[in-house]
Each structure stands twice: as structure tokens, then as C-alpha cells.
């Protein structure tokens, strides 16, 4: 649990550290230069967040369980995407004349990015596979 930013003297120089609280009143000082190694705990609010002992087996078990859950979710996502890729989709007929008429009625000129996206969506719609695109 985050307590405060503390200034400590290290090798005769003042340095700033994050002071983190652990169980049994243990404290860990993390140099501000290493903030990228710290992440906010979002499992519960600050008052009810569980505190573990430094180097405790409970913390190691919690990390292993979280890693297993991440692997399970990743495996499920891979399965979903693999099944989706294996499915056959519906290929629309190319509406060249109708599309040209529709496009001519558009009152603005497309930006290069818009045109690239339009072309990609049209190509997806003409392909016999499920479209997987968010515009």
C-alpha cells in the first residue's frame, strides 16, 4: 500500500523514494527512478486491499494464480479467433455501378486515410470470410 514519498540519504545524497507498506508493518522504499516497476492495485479499495508479507508464499501464490488466469483468458481468446478464422463468411457481390452512384453523392472529398479504410472494408465485404474490423 502506498504511504508517501520519502526523502532518504543514500551515499551522502538526498533521494526520493516511494514508501510502500506491507503486512506486519514492513516497509519497502522504491526509488522514484524505478516508478515504472510499480503498478496500482485495482482489485479493491485502499482500505480493504490485502497486505502480504515481503517474500511471503501467499504473495507468490497470488501471482501464480493471476498468471494462470491470464493464460486461461489468452487460450480462450486464441480458441475464439481460431474458430472465427476457420469459419466461412458471406461474400457480397461487387455492386460497382450502385456503389459508384452512391459515392458520387457523397458531398465531401475523402481523406487518404478515409479512402484507405473504405477500400479495406469493401475488400473485406467481397471476401468469403467473416469481417473482423472496427471503424
CATH fold name of the largest domain, please?
Thrombin, subunit H
CATH architecture of the largest domain: Beta Barrel
- Under the CATH scheme, which class of the largest domain? Mainly Beta
Give the beta-strand count: 3
**How many alpha or pi helices?**
3
Helix content: 40-55%
Determine Rg (CA atoms, Å). Answer: 27 Å
Q: Which sheet architecture does the biggest sheet show?
A: 3 strands, antiparallel
Number of structurally distinct domains = 3
- Given as residue ranges, the uncertain stretches (5+ residues, pLDDT < 50) are none
Task: Assign the structural class, choosing from mainly alpha, mainly beta, alpha/beta, alpha+beta, or little secondary structure.
Answer: alpha+beta
Pfam family, one: CarD_TRCF_RID
Domain CarD-like/TRCF RNAP-interacting: 1-82
Protein name: Transcription-repair coupling factor
Organism: Pseudomonas syringae pv. pisi str. 1704B
Amino acid at each position: 500500500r502506498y504511504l508517501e514519498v520519502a526523502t532518504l540519504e543514500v551515499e551522502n545524497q538526498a533521494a526520493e523514494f516511494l514508501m510502500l507498506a506491507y503486512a506486519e508493518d514492513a516497509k519497502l522504499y522504491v526509488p522514484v527512478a524505478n516508478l515504472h516497476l510499480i503498478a496500482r492495485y485495482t482489485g479493491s479499495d485502499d482500505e480493504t486491499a490485502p497486505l502480504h508479507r515481503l517474500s511471503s508464499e501467499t504473495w507468490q501464490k497470488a501471482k501464480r494464480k493471476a498468471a494462470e488466469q491470464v493464460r486461461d483468458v489468452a487460450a480462450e481468446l486464441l480458441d475464439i479467433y481460431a474458430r472465427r478464422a476457420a469459419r466461412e463468411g458471406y461474400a457480397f457481390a461487387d455492386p460497382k455501378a450502385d456503389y459508384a452512384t452512391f459515392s458520387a453523392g457523397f458531398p465531401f472529398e475523402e481523406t487518404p486515410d478515409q479512402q484507405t479504410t473504405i477500400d479495406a472494408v469493401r475488400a473485406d465485404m467481397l471476401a468469403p470470410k467473416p469481417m473482423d474490423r472496427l471503424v
